[in-house]
Write a sequence for this structure.
């Protein structure tokens, strides 16, 4: 390493670097919509920590393939471009800009994750690109005044909290509620929305609230405290291993409250089974999709159609994975939006159509769950049904609750 | 062929295609700078944005290279310093309304202090043990950023949306082109600084410690001081890169700074060329473009295979270019120039 070496290496390196720059030069511009096609952009994590959700992108592609085989949407075939962001927000920004500026997609659809979508929220709204059916339960995807180009799809955490609150108020005598929540913005927002759902009576009904940190090794002490408060209702806003621990601990100390578990943790395979299926009996959660593993849908028409589609278009997919139903339903929602927009597929028109959905039923949503939007209502699905775990599966009970 | 420093210095410049290397270098330097200046005018904004990100990675990789390549200390945790820089800049901009350009020196200082502090325990750790200690830093960083006591500043899991700077009107540039020039100016300044550093007294001391710490201290080099200072400077470089990335990307969140970022930076160092200042530019381009290339290439077969394709490319590079891309360029030039030199 001599003094001359920097001057010697630097310029040659720069020139070699230019060769790589040339690789990145722009491709020919392509419109998102032609007479015969429409281009849709999608980003999901195919790699990285959240790659378990990658199948949503694959299932989406398979669903649009089926629609194309049936003649497309208003005669246009869908070109579905799906990219990987590894659940890394900076990568999401890069891939989004690639889709919008290089691929020139007409719209963005079903991008997964709260932090990832947050990273592109400003960009898509400044640029005026439809950012439809974001895969996230956060409330921020429904602010048409501030962000007229972004729209969620699934019920928000607030909607779910509201469903539980409404049920408790009208079905439980003298409710004394103990709340366990993760001490971050997810848990705190959830807890706040639940309090709003209870209304003025919140302070009287909630007898104990215990936060935990996601870095805590165990939440045993929190569960014991809740139990000792004599609560007869347990609102459990915990995630992953903490959900498992809390179910087991409550059973261990013989606490038998009416147990509501936030739906993101209501997975039989990954949460309830490790805790013990017998210990999980009686847990209540809320759903809006048909669970493909639920035997009561075995003869359901939607479910059979979905089965046939999985066999033909996505044979490598997992039929027990509820997200394959999710992707199928979301894809049909978008197909409806584009069909309704007719031949005017400008971005404004697509957004107008997305904001004017009336009582739409799409396959794989529970019977009675309807999609409704309006120019001031960017929350497509706001109905859910309560289900109770019977030791084997979740059984539906009561009516579909709608918070429209 | 003699290839030691003496041999290359004493005879006159070797020739390449009839021109002396030093003249080639000046020409190439001019052309390279011209290309850097011209690039935004020849490309769409998205490509300019990608180049900006590559330049940011290049700065971070250079920082890590100062530590690993020139001082022989391993770090699997530079993603944490990158995060420190990014959050410093993001918080100063959003909570305190500071101008984006002013946040960079502050981010450098904060990262320097933290890096310097981490350098002390690092003194007692060598090689693999140091790698493990820094690994802990990298995996802890996203969790610390989610820590609820800091949530008012860090935004917790949701992160912080950072306003993207706009190009001043007098420049007539697009925002992307402006940020590109801004980033490249920092990059060039930091590269010149690093080149001067490693070729001056402190640099010689750093390399002496890398090559033989006992001999270095026997010659009167204050080993602990140099090692901790190098850690600090290395962290500061990476912090600057993180700070720029905060407003170029427009968003920071714990998920942006996972362990994978630290690994990507280390890959950049190795692929660019360990102990090569300009190699960091190759490293930056590699870290940005090769995963994209692998995705498109593997996408033909299966979505899930892109990182397998990336791995294959990586193995090929490490095998075929043991001293990195910068080493390859150097080797090719020397090979082309050598026969003429002997024929002189």
């Amino acid at each position: 390493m001599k003094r001359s070496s920097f001057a010697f290496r630097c310029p040659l390196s720069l020139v070699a670097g230019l060769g790589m720059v040339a690789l990145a030069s722009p491709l020919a511009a392509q419109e998102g919509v032609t007479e015969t096609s429409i281009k849709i952009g999608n980003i999901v994590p195919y790699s990285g920590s959240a790659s378990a959700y990658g199948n949503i992108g694959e299932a989406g592609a398979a669903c649009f393939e089926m629609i194309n085989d049936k003649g497309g949407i208003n005669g246009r075939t869908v070109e579905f471009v799906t990219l990987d962001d590894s659940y890394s927000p900076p990568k999401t920004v890069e891939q989004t800009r690639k889709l919008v500026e290089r691929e020139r997609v007409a719209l963005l659809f079903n991008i997964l994750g709260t932090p990832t979508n947050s990273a592109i929220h400003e960009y898509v709204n400044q640029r005026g690109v439809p950012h439809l059916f974001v895969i996230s339960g956060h409330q921020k995807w429904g602010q048409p005044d501030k962000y007229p180009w972004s729209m969620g799809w699934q019920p928000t955490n607030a909607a779910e909290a509201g469903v539980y609150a409404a049920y408790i108020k009208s079905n439980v005598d003298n409710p004394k509620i103990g709340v366990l929540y993760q001490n971050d913005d997810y848990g705190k927002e959830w807890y706040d929305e639940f309090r709003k759902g209870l209304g003025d009576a919140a302070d009287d009904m909630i007898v104990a609230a215990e936060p935990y940190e996601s870095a805590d090794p165990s939440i045993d002490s929190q569960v014991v405290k809740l139990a000792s408060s004599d609560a007869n209702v347990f609102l459990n806003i915990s995630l992953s291993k903490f959900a498992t621990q809390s179910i087991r601990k409550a059973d261990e100390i013989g606490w038998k409250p009416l147990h509501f578990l936030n739906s993101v943790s209501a997975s039989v395979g990954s949460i309830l089974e490790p805790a013990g299926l017998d210990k999980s009996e009686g847990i209540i959660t809320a759903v809006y999709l048909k669970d493909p593993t639920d035997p009561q849908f075995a003869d359901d028409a939607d479910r059979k159609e979905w089965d046939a589609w999985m066999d033909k278009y996505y044979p490598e997919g997992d039929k027990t994975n509820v997200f394959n139903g999710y992707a199928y339903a979301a894809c049909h929602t978008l197909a409806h939006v584009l069909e309704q927009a007719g031949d005017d597929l400008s971005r404004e028109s697509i957004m107008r159509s997305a904001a004017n959905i009336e009582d739409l039923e799409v396959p794989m949503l529970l019977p009675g769950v309807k999609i409704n939007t309006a120019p001031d209502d960017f929350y497509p699905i706001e109905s859910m049904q309560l289900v109770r775990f019977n030791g084997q599966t979740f059984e539906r009970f009561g009516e579909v609750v709608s918070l429209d | 062929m003699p290839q030691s420093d003496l041999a290359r210095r004493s005879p006159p410049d070797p020739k390449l295609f009839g021109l002396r290397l030093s003249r080639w270098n000046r020409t190439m330097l001019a052309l390279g700078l011209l290309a850097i200046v011209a690039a935004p005018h020849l490309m769409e904004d998205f490509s300019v944005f990608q180049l900006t990100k590559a330049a940011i990675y290049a700065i971070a990789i250079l920082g890590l290279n100062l530590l690993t390549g020139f001082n022989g200390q391993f770090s699997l945790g530079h993603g944490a310093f990158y995060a420190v820089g990014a959050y410093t800049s993001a918080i100063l901009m959003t909570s305190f309304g500071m101008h984006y350009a002013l946040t960079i020196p502050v981010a450098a200082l904060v990262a320097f202090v933290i890096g310097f502090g981490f350098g002390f325990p690092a003194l007692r750790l060598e090689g693999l043990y140091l790698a493990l200690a820094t690994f802990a830093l990298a995996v802890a960083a996203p969790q610390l950023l989610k820590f609820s006591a800091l949530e008012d500043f860090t935004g917790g899991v949701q992160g912080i949306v950072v306003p993207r700077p706009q190009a001043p009107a007098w420049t007539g540039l697009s925002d992307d082109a402006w940020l590109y020039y801004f980033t490249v100016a920092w990059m060039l300044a930091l590269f010149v600084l690093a080149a001067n550093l490693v070729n001056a007294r402190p640099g010689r001391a750093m390399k002496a410690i890398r090559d033989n710490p006992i001999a270095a201290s026997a010659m009167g080099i204050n080993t602990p001081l140099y090692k901790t200072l190098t850690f600090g400077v290395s962290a500061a470089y990476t912090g600057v890169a993180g700070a720029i990335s905060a407003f170029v990307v427009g968003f920071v969140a714990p998920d942006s700074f996972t362990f994978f970022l630290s690994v990507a930076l280390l890959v950049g160092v190795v692929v660019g060329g360990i102990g090569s200042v300009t190699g960091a530019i190759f490293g930056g381009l590699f870290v940005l473009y090769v995963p994209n290339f692998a995705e498109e290439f593997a996408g033909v077969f299966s979505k899930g295979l892109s990182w397998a394709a990336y791995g294959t490319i990586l193995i090929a590079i490490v095998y075929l270019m043991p001293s990195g891309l910068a080493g390859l360029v150097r080797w090719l030039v020397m090979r082309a120039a050598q026969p003429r030199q002997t024929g002189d």
In short: The longest strand of chain B covers residues 15-16. Chain B has one domain: 5-343. Chain B has a mean pLDDT of 88. Chain B is about 75% helix and 0% strand.
